[in-house]
Write a structure and sequence with these properties.
It is globular and about 45 Å long. It is of the alpha+beta class. Strand 3 and strand 4 (45-51) form a beta hairpin. The protein has one domain: Electron Transport, Fmn-binding Protein, Chain A (Pnp Oxidase, Chain A, Roll), CATH 2.30.110.10. The longest helix has 11 residues, at 3-13. The protein starts with a helix and ends in a 27-residue tail after the last strand. The protein has helices at 3-13, 55-60, 76-84; strands spanning 18-24, 27-33, 36-40, 45-51, 65-70, 98-100, 106-108, 113-124, 128-140. Strands 2-1-5-8-9-4-3 form a seven-stranded antiparallel sheet. A two-stranded antiparallel sheet has the order 6-7.
Length: 167
């Protein structure tokens, strides 16, 4: 198989991107994630794959909960903040409205939708690790909010963001 064949397939899918946040040992971190999906109906479970090179991944290893955020399509700036900077070097939450969710996990107020989930398991998948989450709290902006019925930011929308984690 040619790498271009699978690249063409994934380009057609154009899934949403997510900001995943974690808190543990008095620290907080967050990163932009392109690999995530509901992975079970009963019980409802969701998987997010975090890069082993990412500071958020290392903090998530000590966390009990993670928050998963969908960003509105018009908030490329938030995607760039969480995707192009390293949490080990900068406080990505500085100046942003956020609050503590279950387990102290940071929840971004400006997200289109979010949920927090208890980490059910972790599965190595190569250069990423799948964190399987049991959702425990969720919120979606009402249609009357400023975000209205906006679409979520997609992988195509965020394709210009260069990962900020160390190489």
């Amino acid at each position: 198989m040619d790498d271009e064949d699978i690249a063409a397939f994934t380009a057609l899918a154009d899934p949403s991107v997510y900001v995943v946040t974690a808190a543990a040992d008095g620290q907080r971190a967050g990163c932009l994630v392109g690999f995530a999906s509901q992975c079970s109906l009963q019980p409802v479970r969701f998987a997010v794959w975090l890069s082993k090179a990412n500071h958020t991944y290392r903090l998530a290893l000590a966390a009990h909960t993670l928050a998963v955020h969908l960003l509105p399509r018009n908030r490329h700036d938030l995607a760039a903040r969480f995707g192009s900077q390293c949490s080990a070097d900068t406080d990505k939450f500085d100046g942003l409205p956020w609050h503590e969710g279950p387990g102290g996990t940071p929840v971004l107020t400006e997200a289109l939708a979010w949920f927090t989930g208890r980490i059910h398991g972790r599965h190595d998948a190569g250069d990423h690790v799948a964190f399987i989450l049991d959702p425990i709290a969720a919120h979606t902006k009402a249609a009357t909010d400023d975000h209205g019925d906006q679409a979520a930011l997609t992988l195509h929308d965020a394709g210009d963001i260069t990962a900020g984690h160390p190489a």
